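Q: I have 385 residues here and want to know how they pack in 3D. Can you give me a structure?
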Amino acid sequence: MLPRAALLGSIGGAALALLGFLPLLETLRNPVVGMASFGVLLYVLLGRGRLPWRVPGVLAAFVVGTALYYGLGLAGLGLPGFAVPQPQPLQAVLPLPDAGFITGLPYTVPYLPLLLPFGLLMVIGGISVAESARAAGDDYRTRDVLLVEAVATLLAGICGGVAQTTPYIGQPAYKHMGARHGYTLLTGLFIGLGGMLGYVSLLVQWLPVPVLAPIIVYVGLGITVQAFQASPRQHAPAVALAFLPALAYLLVIKLGNPAWIAPDSFAALYAGIDAHGLSDLAAIVSLGNGFIITAMLWGTALVAIIDRHPRRAAAVLLLAGVLTLFGVIHSVDPRGGIYLPWMLEGVRATIAWQFAAGYAVLALLLGLLSLQRPVADEAEAHDPR
């Protein structure tokens, strides 16, 4: 069983980077609205401040931000890009099962190298989310969580769904906001009916992003904090280490945007190798691809080292080396696809074998160091008693 520091650290890093930093950027794209909403949220939920008439903190932040957004915008004091959305007609569309997807299956074959690692990440994410809920006091069976996730994905796919279902991270933050099982039920009904009746697209159109983003930032903070608080204190370095691959993936998202770096320039920067080693971009992309699995393996290995089990850490590192060769982690495909190691050529082959060799060498060193006399035995040998 993986240590809690590895499980929570992997989603804690994702929460910090993808639920914390990215939505924070969206929050600050309209500073007046975003900072006001975020500040009210923190005042109530973390500062335990009181609001008039006992208004819930999330509702208050939402109302304040929305009023500022449209009030300043209509008065001409908002950002230059402000515009009142055009009303869209509602249309009821039922998600009826359809066998048409069968004719499209042959077209998915070229995308399997991308789909398989994505599916694996979702499964591992479900395991980590179940552990996060367990740490928050809700002991859900991981097998049941994964089973519901799989069945929901299949049913959604038959009805035209294009994304895999996975439990959403944030259990500790939702509980802190007062959510219980009814919250999940009502959310499912609200979103499900909204998709069928069309009012979800209407809400997305009218609700300002700088008002909604702070709520996601708060959820990200809650998950990040839980990763440290729910793990043994001595494993805190493993939690922090597990955060780093997610930060690399954050850079991959931004640097992979063609509006920032032209594809030709990206390829040239990625392939660069000099006397110091791989290019910065190659290191960032390789670290970011498969970041959740990488974070779990790194966290597990460091926990084993902290607990003085170097052979266990060496075994985890050898596993990481094997997964590296197939692109499950540290994929040299900028899109994150998997592959067979003997099919790689040029710079990509160099990057893959360098990462795999790094894990192998470190595993060998830990294996050799494990042959020493344990520290406890040495202490006992010098104990005058």
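Q: Anything worth noting?
A: Residues 35 and 276 are 43 Å apart (CA to CA). The radius of gyration is 24 Å.
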